Structure formats: C-alpha cells, structure tokens
Amino acid sequence: ASIVRLHATGLGPPRPVRYGLRRDDVAEVYGDEPNARLSGFRAYLEIDRDTAGRHLEVWATLEDGRSVRLFKRRLTRGRSGVGSRIWTAARASVRRPGLLFSRRSWANAIAFVSRDALPSAAPGAPASIDVYAPPVMDPRASLAGFLSSGSRLALPAPAAPAVSIVVVVWNRADLTLQCLRVLAAQTDVATEVIVVDNASTDETPALLAKIDGVRVIGNASNLGFTVSVNLGAKLARGEFLLLLNNDAEMAPGCLHHLVQTARASSGTGAVGGKLVFPDGRLQEAGSIIWSDGSCDAYGRGDDPQAPEFNFERTVDFCSAALLLTPRAVFDSLGGFDERYKPAYYEDADYCTRLWKHGLRVVYQPKAIAIHHEFGSAASAGAGIELQRQRRPIFVSLHAEWLTSQPFRDSGTLAARWHPHQQPAVTVIDDAVPDPRMGAGFPRAAELLHALEATGYRVTLYTTSGDPRASSLAGFPRVEVIASGPSGLGALLAARRPRLLIVSRPHNMEYVKAAIGSDFSALGIRCVYDAEAIYAVREIGRRTAIRQPMREPDQRALIDGELALARGCASVLTVSEADRQVFAGAGVANVRVLGHALEPRPTANPFEQRDAILFVGAFGPDSPNDDAVAFFCREVLPALRGAGCGAPLVVAGAHMPESITMLGDASVSWHRDLDDLTPLYDRARVFVAPTRYAAGIALKVLEAAARGVPVVATPLVARQLGWQAGIELLVAGEPADFARAITSLFADRGLWTGLRDAALARITRDCDRAAFRSVVQEALRTAQDGGDLTP
C-alpha cells in the first residue's frame, strides 16, 4: 500500500506533514530504493513552551486505510543561551520495504532552524528534539526565504512532453511557489509547465524570474481563469493537458495515476482526482450536477479514506483545480466556453460537453492533491457569488441534458455516478476476491467482473473486515466496504439496496441475522450464490477422520443449509448435482454458475516436464490440508516404491508450517505466489487427492486450462462430471494413485490425449460469455422489471 497522508500528533490537533519532496542526498545513500529521490517530508509545527515531556509522533495513512506510526520522540526544553525565536523542522527518508521510515534516517536528519541563527545539526542528532519557542513559518515565510536566497527552482522542460500543465496565477505567489516546487519534484511523467500570469501585483513576477524551465504568458490585465486556460492551452505540446490551480499541491504519483487512467480507454475525455483540504478533510471526490444546474462536491467535509470515496467511477464532472484531458479533445471542443469568464462553471460545462460527445469523465481516487480552496480568488464570498451568477448560463446551454440529471432531493448515492440510470448491486462475500486465495475466490472474482461487464455499479461488502483496497485484486471500480458482520445491519438500513447478492452460507446467515428473512417486505431482491452445499463437505470430513455423522444429523445439516434460500429470488450453484438438491427441496430459480476460464496451456513439451504439482489454498479443516497430508503420508511412499522419483511441488495461500514438515526431501513448498505459470510449465501431472469437498474443484479446472493432465479422486471426477480415462485419470487408494501417475510419466500418448480432452472440456464448460449469460439471467429473474438504480 502507498502512503496517502502524513500527520503529526502530540502537540494539539493533528497537523498535516508534506511529503514526497525531492531528496537527492537520500537517493545517493539509498541508491537501490526506487522512491528514495522523492522521499523527503517536512512539517512546521507551532509548539507551546510547556511541551517538555510530551511526545511528538508522526503517523502515515496508507492507501488501504491503515494508519502506521513512523516516529516518536520525547520533547525537551531548548538549550540555554539560544533565543526564543527558533523553530524546528524535521524531515527524513522512506526506507523500503514496507513503507516504513528508517529509524536511522530519522535520527540522522533532524535539523534545527532559527530566524536569527542556524545552529549546527550534524548527522547523529541527539536522542530528544530540542524545542524552541513559538514558530511562525507559513507559505509567506517560505516565499520570502526563497526570494531572498540565491537559489533557483528548476522545472523539467523535455523536448516532447507527455503532459502540458497549465497553471493560471493571480497573486498568491506563496501558493504558486508551493505548487511549482511539487511540479519540480515530479519525475514519473514527462511534463512541461505553462504559467499564465494575470497581471499579478504581488511577488509573482519576482518569483517567476527565479524559475527555470517554465513557459510564462504575462497578461496585461486580469483576464480571469477561463480565458487564461485557453491561452495556456494554445502553447501546449503534450498529448494531455493538465489544468492545475496554483493553490493545489499534487501528492506523489498523482499525475501518473491521472495519465494511466486516461490512457486505459480511448473513450475517456477527462480524469479528475481527489481534492483534500489542508486540514485533511475531503474537499471533492468528483462532483454532481443536479437537474436544476446546481452543483455539489461529493463527500465534502468527510473522511477522504472512507470507502465511498476510494474507488474509480464515472462522474458528472471534476473540478478544473485538477483536471487532465487529451489536448486534441480540448482543442476539438474549442476549449473552455468563454461565456463563463472570468471564472466558475467552465469545468462543469466542459465535462457536460464531453458527455454529450460520448466521452467519459472519470474520478480517480489515487490521484490526490491538497487544495487551498479559493486560495487564488479575491475571497471565498466572491467565488461563491460568481458561481451563482454563472449557473443561469449553464442551465440555458444544457437545459435538455439536465432533464436526465437527478433531482437534488434524490440523494447522493445514485447521483455520485454518471450516467444515473445504471442499476446497482451490493455483493456480500468474505473478502476482496484475490484468485490466489483459492476457496472459490477465482470464481468470485469472475462474478464481479461479470457484473461490471453487464453494466452494474458494484458495492462489495466484506464480512471478514478485510480493509484492503479493491485495486488489490484488480477491481478499481468496485466500492469495497469492510466492516465485518456487525456492520451489515447499519449498511443495509442506510443504503437500502434493491438488489443483493449474498455469497456462501455463513454470509447469508449474517444477512438474515441482521435484517430477517422477508427480503420482499424490505424492498430487496436477493440472489443467493450458494456455490455448493457445504454440509456435504463437513459430512465428508467427519467420515475421513473416522468420526462419521449419524444419518439424521446429516439430513438436518443439509436441510438447515437449504433453508437459507427461503425468500431469495434466485439461487446459484457451481454444479448440476447441487442444483438438483436445491430444486428437490422446492427452491425455485436455481441455476448452475460454474467457472469462467480460457484455455492457456503452458508451452513446455512432455519431455521437458518433470514434476508432480498440487495447488490449493490451505486453512483450518480445509480439504486441501487433508489432501496434501494424505498424498505425502500414503501416496508418496507408494509412488517411490513404484520407482517414480519425480519431485512433488506444492503451492498455495495460507500454507501452515505443519504441512511443510510432511513428505520427503523431494517436496518443495511455495507460498502465496503471484504467478503459477512456471510451476504449470514444469508439471507433467497435476494431482487432486481430495477426500472430501463441496461444489467443484476449481484448482483442477485451472490446472487443466494450463495444459496439465490430472489424476484425481472419484469424488472430484463426480463433482466435475468428467469421464475417467478420457479427460482425467481417477484413483482412490494410494497404490492406484501411484500407478496412474507413473503411467502418465511414462506414456506420452496417454498424456497428450488427456491434455487435449481436458482443454476441450474447459472450452465447453467454462466459456466466459456463457458464465456472464447465467449471471444476467439470475439478475433478470430477481429484478422482475423493477428499477434497481440506488
């Protein structure tokens, strides 16, 4: 996870800490750290005289929502003989891995600065920070220091910039300096900077005279923001224009994320980011245009780390304080409409015209900037008055388009998206579906992809409370809420989702405990993605450990699970066998939703493969733990006795130490791999010695899709409906497993025939279009023609 905010505590309210500053000295020391050059951070803290004995702490807020304490120091009185007009500045470097700031770099980078004198601060600062009297450092003081020094600020000036950044300024040279310093440190995208000065009367001319690499347009009078942006755009050479207020400071990586999002689709007309007030409150996460032409910044004043503001989505418009657009598109639309001069509503108008031309406006939460709102306006009141005056112009130009916009009293939940007519669905599952986790999560990931492809706006509620961002598993456009089972009632009461998909029995239990079983009375249409009948797995486990369940107990366990489908509009299972059990219990609208896979056989020929492979996620009472233990304890000795010395390769998530103690020296263990391709490419045989399980073995489907023939138990073959000797080999006893594996290692023709037949079966059974068709049918049944917009 990346850092999105630093703040200091212990000296009153939390204070924001600027970070991502250029540190060439750190880069020299930590040459192997890719982020070292932009690892600096700085804070100016106002400290009372009675702080002795208190602690200064610096905390980082990470992209995934976690907070990590990076630094803690006890404060002491200042040294005697030093005047009271001294302030402190602390800065240090990022040290990978883990985003932790190196303790040593903290200790070696404490600097003491005085207005009157500069005490020495050699590397190896004292164990406590000397604190001196009240400081007064602000952007004005920083500007004064820069102008009075002999230093200059150099901005990049590439011959072929990817992005042309247009910054319009009118006075507030202090904010302009902060903005340009950030741009000078930005190195991940080739940029040119164009500053349009609207006849500033403060220190702006003197400041710009000390900036190298910037292209300056000096207006004879204040032409306003709208006209000045158009003037700056005419000088631009980049593929993209970035409109950036001089009172905005981009966070590290901001520009990279904007450009990456814009390039992801040719239909994107503009990308905006997350604007945050200097005090850490959210200013804007995309903006809403209501049917009356009024506008609201979504999330204003809220926590910028809240899940509703941290997923990518299409929006009505994003503020031109931070707005990226293809230069060719900007030119083709004639730039900003100058009827809005001097300022305000030109960005809403531009984004509206993009939508009218079939181009999307996208909010990208990873692109973050601190914005001093109205920092470059004469006053906040003047800015608000200009907005009020320009609204009638906007309404007159876009009256017909506004008829499709939501009414102000309809709430922001639906209005935060554009267009506003798309249906929404809330999915409840254990966690963000990372396919590496196994346990049905590869299929869960395909379900989310299918919902997105079908046009649904997806909210994923994770009952594990896993706070990881949706981007972890490739779902940047899914809203992820991780509040655990206890938060379900509050979410469903506040959101009142009209369409709900609940995956797995225990999650359905959580839902019914929170809101009851009568979904229709609450206006909720529920699709129960049961996956499998998990009671069957527990019954099988008890049999495998020689503690079989009595027949009445088995029936009660299954009946209790089937009862969870009551009140649901549709039910999904992974196999035909499970579908028949639900249907036999009188459950209507049960469909089989297996898995979506494309055949991707690895390249190595038969002769270059030498390993036996097992892949699967592990966990308490997991069938995979039992399967690997059974194979290592009983099958491997039989295999070695049959003369096969092929190594066994075991890979999977959450692998316990107890498992790795099994087997002989030929067994290798691989935890949490991002890419299993090298293992599949080496494997001649995939084994599934599963003695109990529910549903279907997704790991067998994955292995077959990668072109590795399978030896499995009769249980796995029945679940899949595959034919023994045609699409896989079947073995139940250790000696049978040994013979089947040995035959596959020895017989190239048998190996090729099984491989080809299994690949054909994957093509037939795991077609992605068919998978999505089943999802659509289940949702259509649940909808009954009703409106599902939130």
List the keywords.
alpha/beta, ten-stranded mixed beta sheet
Task: Kindly describe this structure.
- By secondary structure, the protein is an alpha/beta fold.
- Strands 10, 11, 13, 14, 15, 16, 17, 20, 21 and 22 form a ten-stranded mixed beta sheet that branches. An eight-stranded mixed beta sheet has the order 7-6-3-2-1-4-5-8.
- It is globular, with a radius of gyration of 31 Å.
- Residues 77-137 and 785-789 have low confidence and may be disordered.
Overall structural class, as computed from helix and strand content, comes to alpha/beta
The dominant shape is: globular
Helical proportion?
A: 25-40%
Strand content: 15-25%
The quaternary structure here is single chain
Distance between the termini: 31 Å
Whole-number mean pLDDT: 83
Q: Sketch the major β-sheet.
A: 10 strands, mixed
Count the beta strands: 35
Per DSSP, the total helix count is: 26
Please give the structural blueprint.
Layout (H helix, E strand, L loop, with lengths): L2 E7 L5 E7 L2 H6 L10 E5 L10 E8 L4 E11 L8 E5 L12 H5 L2 E5 L14 E3 L7 H10 L4 E2 L8 E7 L3 H13 L5 E7 L6 H5 L2 E2 L1 E5 L5 H12 L4 E5 L3 E3 L3 H10 L4 E9 L5 E3 L2 E3 L5 E3 L15 E2 L7 E5 H6 L13 H11 L3 E12 L8 H18 L1 H4 L9 H4 L8 E6 L11 H13 L3 E6 L16 E3 L6 H8 L3 E5 L1 H11 L9 E7 L2 H11 L6 H12 L7 E4 L2 H9 L5 E3 L18 E5 L7 H19 L6 E5 L4 H4 L6 E5 L5 H6 E6 L9 H8 L4 E3 L1 H7 L8 E2 L3 H13 L1 H18 L2 H16 L7
Parallel strand pairs: 5-8, 9-12, 10-11, 10-14, 11-13, 16-22, 23-24, 23-26, 24-25, 26-27, 27-28, 28-29, 30-31, 30-33, 31-32, 33-34, 34-35
Antiparallel strand pairs: 1-2, 1-4, 2-3, 3-6, 4-5, 6-7, 14-21, 15-22, 16-17, 16-21, 18-19, 20-22
Helix pairs in contact: 3-4, 13-26, 14-15, 16-17, 19-24
